[in-house]
């Protein structure tokens, strides 16, 4: 079990058992949006472990397995005897059907996409819904016979049992996904589950979180000092601001310029924190990083070097501070879930080198006040702490910075080119209102040269790729269909204003199969 498993304000929560669906995190986020704390647990958690937590309801998520396969993941069967309202979604519904004596069959064809369902019975889960509405289906198997005691509450053209329930046992099942926006009344269904069925008090919000976490931090830190590494990103800014409000000068903030930041970034970050009265240590380590990166072209090697350099710079600063007990980190809930469940054969796609590598080497106690929160919750918290929108809405920027956006070797000249190109992208996005509509928009420098003509001269310059994606959490992403006018403007400006570039291309790949960053 993970530590720090806290509670809504009074401890109420909805537990989500994760059967591996890409939507599991979304379910927990939706429940929180509705004002009830929600946490994700591995599907095989025992009832003994689960009952240690004050659970108002349990949701079994969807998942990629088939209940018809031997060894299909199944929850502890005692879960159905806990007397806690349960909602099964997709695979969650099928495994409930199978375990409680119903029948699941394999479908001839997959039912995928928006589908109309018809509600057949008066059920609290469908309270306030019209008889017919559209939902998001994504399944091959389906339930052909409900378990004894269950009644069918909705159907679709292809699926005889689109929803079923046992009101006595308070078990509700949906073949479709209420958590995705393509289900018209999805939020209403989840709301019905938490209010009509679980009767969970809706007291999870950032005001109450702020109150609770502030007193927890004060109690934990007492008179001790806390060190933190700032990146200028949303998470470390919110974490540092939160802790600074509570312990003032006893927070020592370190900002390392690794030479891989965007144009103007070191100055902006510095002045922001200095204006807010932070006890800030600024270290310009650019030369040192660039020296170590000389001649390195392999992406993983770049990340490794940057990670190590960061640790060693930070280590040097820390050792000059005398005794500091805590290290503050802006770890978020998705990182906690991933490190908790990524073990089982999860492939390493990229090593994310943030301050994450620090504690192994340095002997700090960790302070991670945001580890219960999703990104959108961190932004809300930031707002309560009066952090300007401009910072809270910032696109994510990777720890290894521009190093993973310059393919091949990193040189000062390539950094100059990429900074200029990237600045143009940022400016055009901010100006055109597209900035807030996308997850990330940035430039990538391709080290290949191609022929162009400028005036009467032949040119032989680099290419810049523009990468713009929309995403919920960075795990999957779609490339964004930008208006041609915006692309044209960016392309014109880059080729005109950035010396050394004569070609601009647009990346039209989603994730998967590509990743968001190019390295
Ligand atoms: P990828 O490229 O893996 O990126 O699809 C997913 C999201 O993570 C960001 N990213 C990083 N963030 N340190 C970070 O803090 C890293 O090393 C790193 N690599 C990628 C990326 O910008 C995207 O939002």
Would you write up a description of this structure?
The chain is of the alpha/beta class and 519 residues long. The chain folds into three domains: 13-197, Rossmann fold (3-Layer(aba) Sandwich); 206-392, HUPs (Rossmann fold, 3-Layer(aba) Sandwich), CATH 3.40.50.620; 405-506, 2-Layer Sandwich (GMP Synthetase, Chain A, domain 3), CATH 3.30.300. 32% of the residues lie in helices and 23% in strands. Strand 18 and strand 19 (478-479) form a beta hairpin. Helix 5 crosses helix 6 and helix 5 (206-221) crosses helix 12 (375-384). The site of xanthosine-5'-monophosphate has 14 residues, from loops.
Features of this protein?
single chain; 519 residues; alpha/beta; five-stranded parallel beta sheet; Rossmann fold; 32% helix; binds xanthosine-5'-monophosphate; 15 helices; GMP Synthetase, Chain A, domain 3; globular; 3 domains
Detail the topology: elements first, then pairings.
Layout: E1 13-18, H1 24-33, E2 38-42, H2 47-51, E3 55-60, E4 86-89, H3 91-99, E5 103-105, E6 111-119, E7 132-139, E8 142-145, E9 151-156, E10 163-166, E11 171-174, H4 186-197, H5 206-221, E12 226-230, H6 234-247, E13 251-257, H7 265-275, E14 279-284, H8 286-293, H9 299-319, E15 326-328, H10 333-341, H11 358-361, E16 365-367, H12 375-384, H13 389-392, H14 412-431, E17 440-454, E18 457-470, E19 478-479, H15 484-497, E20 501-506
Parallel strand pairs: 1-2, 1-3, 3-4, 4-11, 12-13, 12-15, 13-14, 15-16, 18-20
Antiparallel strand pairs: 5-8, 6-7, 6-9, 9-10, 10-11, 17-18, 18-19
Bound molecules: xanthosine-5'-monophosphate.
Xanthosine-5'-monophosphate binds next to loops.
């Amino acid at each position: 079990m993970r530590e720090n498993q806290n509670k809504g304000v009074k401890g109420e929560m909805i537990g989500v058992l994760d059967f591996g669906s890409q939507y599991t995190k979304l379910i927990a986020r939706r429940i929180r949006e509705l004002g009830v704390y929600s946490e994700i647990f591995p599907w095989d958690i025992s009832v003994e472990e689960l009952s240690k937590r004050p659970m108002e309801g349990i949701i079994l998520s969807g998942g990629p397995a088939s209940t018809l396969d031997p060894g299909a993941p199944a929850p502890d069967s005692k879960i159905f005897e806990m007397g806690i309202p349960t909602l099964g979604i997709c695979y969650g519904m099928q495994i409930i059907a199978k375990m409680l004596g119903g029948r699941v069959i394999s479908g001839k064809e997959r039912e995928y996409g928006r589908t109309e369902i018809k509600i057949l019975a008066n059920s609290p889960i469908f309270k306030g819904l019209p008889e017919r509405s559209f939902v998001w289906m994504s399944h091959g198997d389906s339930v052909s016979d409900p378990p004894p005691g269950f009644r069918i509450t909705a159907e679709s053209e292809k699926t005889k049992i689109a929803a079923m329930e046992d009101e006595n046992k308070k078990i509700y099942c949906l073949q479709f996904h209420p958590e995705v926006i393509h289900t018209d009344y999805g939020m209403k269904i989840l709301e019905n589950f938490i209010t009509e069925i679980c009767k969970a008090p809706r007291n999870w919000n950032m005001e109450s979180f702020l109150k609770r976490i502030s007193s927890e931090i004060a109690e934990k830190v007492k008179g001790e000092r806390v060190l933190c590494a700032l990146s200028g990103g949303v998470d470390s800014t919110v974490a540092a601001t939160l802790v600074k409000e509570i312990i003032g000068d006893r927070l020592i903030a370190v900002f390392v310029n690794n030479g891989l930041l965007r144009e103007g970034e070191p100055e902006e970050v510095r002045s922001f924190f200095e204006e807010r009265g932070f006890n800030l240590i600024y270290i310009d380590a650019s030369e040192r990083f660039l020296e170590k990166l000389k001649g390195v072209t392999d992406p993983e090697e770049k990340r490794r070097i940057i990670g190590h350099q960061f640790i060693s710079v930070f280590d040097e600063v820390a050792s000059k501070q005398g005794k500091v007990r805590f290290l503050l980190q802006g770890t978020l809930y998705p990182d906690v879930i991933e490190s908790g469940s990524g073990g089982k054969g999860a492939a390493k796609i990229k090593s994310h080198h943030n301050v994450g590598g620090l504690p192994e080497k340095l002997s700090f106690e960790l302070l991670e006040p945001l580890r219960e929160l999703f990104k959108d919750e961190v932004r809300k918290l930031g707002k309560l702490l009066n952090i300007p929108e401009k910072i809270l809405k910032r696109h994510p920027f990777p720890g290894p910075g521009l190093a993973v956006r310059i393919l091949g070797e990193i040189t000062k000249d390539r950094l100059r080119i990429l900074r200029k190109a990237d600045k143009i992208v940022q400016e055009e996005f901010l100006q055109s209102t597209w900035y807030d509509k996308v997850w990330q928009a940035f430039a990538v420098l391709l080290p290949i040269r191609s022929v162009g003509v400028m005036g009467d001269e032949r040119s032989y310059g680099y290419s810049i790729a523009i990468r713009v994606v929309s995403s919920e959490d960075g795990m999957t992403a779609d490339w964004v269909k930008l208006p041609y006018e915006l692309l044209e403007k960016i392309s014109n400006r880059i080729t005109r204003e950035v010396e050394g570039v004569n070609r601009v291309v647009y990346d039209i790949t989603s994730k998967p199969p590509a990743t968001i960053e190019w390295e």
